[in-house]
Amino acid sequence: MKIPALPFTVTDWDHVPRTEHPGETGMGYWRTFNIGDIRVRLVEYSPGYLADHWCDRGHIIYVVKGEMVSELKDGRTFPMKAGMSYQVSDFGDSPHRSRTDTGVTLFIVD
Predict the structure, then answer these.
(1) Does the predicted TM-score (pTM) go above 0.90?
(2) Which of 35, 36, 57, 66 is most exposed, with the fewest beta carbons within 10 Å of its own?
(3) Rounded to whole angstroms, how far apart are CA atoms 14 and 78?
(4) Rounded Cα gap, residues 58 and 108, in angstroms
(5) Residue 110 in contact with residue 65, Cβ under 8 Å?
(6) pLDDT digits (tens, 9 = 90+) for 40-64
């Protein structure tokens, strides 16, 4: 990842517009800041959320609060709780998706 030239930038996430992204079940709420080809997001998934697709995009994901499970299409699962992160490259491993029973807030760079 290469961060393009930009001035020192502070993001007040409370002032970034929130967009809705329905899952197979539940709802995702994203606040997104784009820097060139890099997308930085603060994402909330509602209780009962299950992603509506398998993803091949690379991410750095940090769990801010709550708990989730990252499922890989090959059957592996990784429980994640606040303070944990995962990193995956574009097409670097089995496609993945997120689910949460209780709700979760994530900080994502991709």
Answers:
(1) yes
(2) 36
(3) 29
(4) 10
(5) no
(6) 999 999 999 999 999 999 999 999 9
